Amino acid sequence: MRRISAALIFGLMVAGVHANSAIPAQEHYTEGRYSEAISVGEAEGSSTGFMVAARAAFADAELRETPCLECLSHAEELARMAISADPENADAYLLFVAALGRRARLIGFFASQREGVASQTDEAISKALMLEPGSAFALAVRGAWHFEVVSQAGRFLGSTLYGARAEDGQRYFAEAIAQEPENLVIRYQYALSLEAYGFDAERAEVEMALEAATLGRPRDAYEGAINARATKLLGLLRDGMEEAFRDLMSRYRGDP
């Protein structure tokens, strides 16, 4: 098992959560106009508007070449506003998890521990699953949470202190994939989680997940970027360029 120093790795798939309401901010997000989506979503003032704005801020941060702590803090704030406007908005909790988890990567493990990131995200995921038990994204986020905690703390402490198990991570991802087998973002995140946890033991599964991600049909600009990343990673892996593959995986995860 290879430990990583960042806090939580389940941010990527959450930006793929799609709002049910057709609002102007959503169109901006779909086309990759993230600054416009943030402005319009905030001005909308509803839970859905704040949620789309949070997704846009997160996606913008995620796809940058260099880390943007300010972007992630803004996404976290917007997600909190979405929750405040509608405490029953399951997707808003997942966006909060994405933003907080990604920010925790940048501030480091010990700072995130002092903030209680693991417990905050655990509670938010549980709330999302309570509101929407069959949500593929919520199931995938829970699966990634298990992988990350075990990667950080080890099998014994991860299980004893947090109730996290790699086997449960795989189970939750399997349930998420069964719910949405063609969802390329979930497949991609599964590959990231497995590679961080134990690439040598899970190489074949990582390759299968990446291949599935390359075959998915992007629904928006963000998913198009994730599809391209999966294609690049799969090419490196199949060409035997393992060091370059691992380095790129680490960069895409946002490892410091």
Q: Can you characterise this structure?
A:
- The chain is mostly helical and 256 residues long.
- The protein has a single domain (12-253), classed as Serine Threonine Protein Phosphatase 5, Tetratricopeptide repeat (Alpha Horseshoe).
- The protein has helices spanning 24-30, 34-44, 47-62, 69-85, 90-107, 109-115, 117-131, 136-162, 166-179, 184-215, 221-238, 242-253.
- Helix 5 packs antiparallel against helix 7 (117-131).
Give the gist of this structure.
The protein has 256 residues and is an all-alpha fold. Helix content is 76%, strand content 0%.
Q: What's the number of domains?
A: 1
CATH hierarchy: architecture? Alpha Horseshoe
User: What is the percentage of strand-forming residues?
Assistant: under 5%
Tell me the number of strands: 0
Mean pLDDT, rounded to whole units?
87
User: CATH H level: which superfamily?
Assistant: Tetratricopeptide repeat domain
Helical/strand content category:
mainly alpha
Low-confidence stretches are: 1-12
Helix fraction, binned, reads over 70%
Order of helices and strands: HHHHHHHHHHHH
Global shape? globular
Largest sheet, strands/sense/barrel: none
Number of helices: 12
CATH fold-type name: Serine Threonine Protein Phosphatase 5, Tetratricopeptide repeat
Rg, please?
A: 17 Å
User: What is the end-to-end distance?
Assistant: 18 Å
Top-tier CATH class: Mainly Alpha
